[in-house]
Design goal:
Layout: H1 13-17, E1 28-30, H2 35-50, E2 59-64, H3 71-85, E3 88-93, H4 103-121, E4 126-128, H5 133-145, H6 150-153, E5 159-166, E6 169-176, H7 184-194, H8 210-216, H9 218-223, H10 228-253, E7 260-263, E8 267-271, H11 272-277, H12 280-295, H13 303-313, E9 322-326, E10 329-333, E11 337-342, E12 352-354, E13 359-362, E14 366-370, E15 378-382, H14 384-393, H15 401-404, E16 408-412, E17 415-419, E18 424-425, E19 434-438, H16 443-446
């Protein structure tokens, strides 16, 4: 029987790494130099050699946040260890000015962005991180303390997608967590048994952080039966339920028979009678997805603010019209229908120059592209009242002006040249060269909200 102080055995490596197809192509490892990520690097090298694969095909990434004087030396220590194991290595530096508050959240955001962009630039699609059984248990407890729902209590998945947007469009990095079922103590025992050092970030011991306080309470929690093993078991079972609800929500959304109608002009329409007949949990997920997509907000929709909106939308007796705003979206309910669209006026909409051959994500909502055959760069901005006036001057009948003003449109100087969602083109040749497609409910696939929401040593 394996105990918490036993090193990882060679015969366990295939079970840890073999199921992910990691030999099929190059991947990257997120290694900070702490015990968990150092053990990940060492164990992965062992498994590759067992499989007859060369570690040189894979890259170790270390993010130097420049938050402590020792960080550069710690990154170099990781680089030296990676080279000794046969890996290539890159240090990614967080160069931007550091915020005065919320430093851990900002560092996490920078970390994921730097690694995601590095992997995309080198066509690497998989990132290994060193999240452990202890991280899983702590995450569940942290989210339980915040009143999280099923999605939060499902905690950390063994694998997930981290999406982004580059010059050639949307892309996705798979995050794989092969050590999620392994206790931190076993990883440290593995390193100690080989005489391998690791570095510790002293901020991980500060009692101001919630995760540190949970670690200090571990013995008391275990005495109550809240061991890491049992908490991780609950998280696995909750993930299974979450997956079932996600599938049901997708079916409920899917056109032509689903509840949601997607308009290419960037809004959703929902039948209020049908919505009131659906289970509340499904309605919450469905409305939350529509709000995120219509608003294009980079943050997840907060359930604490979503629930009262859904309560109002699902009323059957005494139903009243109403409107709400959340996550950059405007939700408008009549007696019969619900419309969810981008909220006007809250934030200025982007104005960007798009070069020939480029693809951009505009306002978090529209995939905008200019073909390489286009002769010049064009400005993409909201249609606005100026654009509506130009369309009307050309004899176009315009309705629902509020939503249309928020559409992406192509301009050359002060002249409107295209509004793809309205099938307007200043010349016929532009129709094949310019596009602006509403992402709709695909938004959750490309939005940065897919990133993990808590901080771990593994990253």
């Amino acid at each position: 029987m394996t105990c918490a102080s036993d090193p990882i055995r060679p015969d366990e490596l295939e079970a840890l790494f073999g199921a992910y197809g990691l030999c099929a192509g190059p991947c990257a490892l997120a290694v900070s130099g702490g015990s968990d990520s150092t053990a990940l690097m060492v164990l992965f090298a062992d498994w590759l050699r067992q499989a007859g694969a060369d570690p040189k095909a894979h890259t170790v990434l270390t993010v130097d946040h420049r938050l402590r004087p020792e960080s550069a030396a710690e990154a170099q220590m990781v680089a030296d260890r990676a080279a000794a194991l046969g890996f290539s290595h890159a240090t990614l530096v967080w160069q931007e000015e550091k915020p005065p508050t919320g430093i851990q959240a900002a560092a996490r955001e920078a970390r994921y962005r730097l690694m995601r962009e590095n992997l995309h630039a080198r066509a690497i699609a998989t990132l290994l991180t060193a999240h452990t059984l202890d991280d899983q248990a702590e995450t569940l407890l942290m989210r339980l303390a915040r009143g999280s729902g099923l999605d939060g209590l499902a905690a950390i998945a063994p694998s997930s997608a981290l999406a982004g947007w580059g010059p050639d469009g949307a892309y996705c990095v798979a995050i794989v967590r092969p050590l999620l079922g392994i206790a931190k103590s076993r990883l440290r025992a593995t390193l100690e048994g080989r005489g391998l050092p690791w570095s510790e970030d002293p901020s991980n011991e500060l009692p101001t952080y919630e995760r540190t306080r949970l670690r200090a309470a571990r013995e008391a929690l275990a005495a109550l039966g809240l061991t890491s093993d049992m908490l991780a078991l609950s998280a696995r079972r909750l993930r299974r339920a979450r997956a079932a609800l996600a599938t049901l929500t997708e079916r409920t959304c899917t056109e032509p028979d689903g509840l949601v109608r997607t308009d290419p002009c960037g809004y959703f329409t929902i039948d209020r009678d049908r919505l009131s007949q659906a289970p509340e949990e499904i309605v919450l997920r469905l409305i939350g997805r529509c709000i995120a997509a219509a608003g294009g907000s980079p943050e997840p929709v907060p359930w604490g603010r979503l629930e009262p909106i859904v309560d109002g939308l699902r009323q059957r007796e005494g139903r009243q019209p109403g409107h709400w705003t959340l996550a950059r979206a405007l939700i408008t309910a009549t007696l019969d229908t619900i419309q969810i669209e981008r909220e006007p006026g809250r934030q200025p909409l982007p104005r960007i120059m798009v070069a020939a051959g480029a693809k951009v994500l505009w306002d978090g909502r529209f995939a905008v592209a200019v073909a390489a055959d286009c002769k010049a760069s064009l400005e993409v901005r909201a249609l606005g009242s100026d654009g509506l006036q130009q369309l009307r001057a050309l004899g176009r009948t315009i309705k629902a002006a509020r939503s249309l003003q928020l559409l992406p449109s192509f301009w050359r100087d002060d002249h409107l040249v295209a509004v793809p969602a309205l099938d307007f083109w200043a010349s016929g040749e532009l129709k094949g060269l310019l596009s602006a497609d509403f992402l709709g409910l695909q938004y959750n696939w490309v939005a940065p909200s897919s990133r993990p929401s808590d901080d771990f040593e593994g990253l």
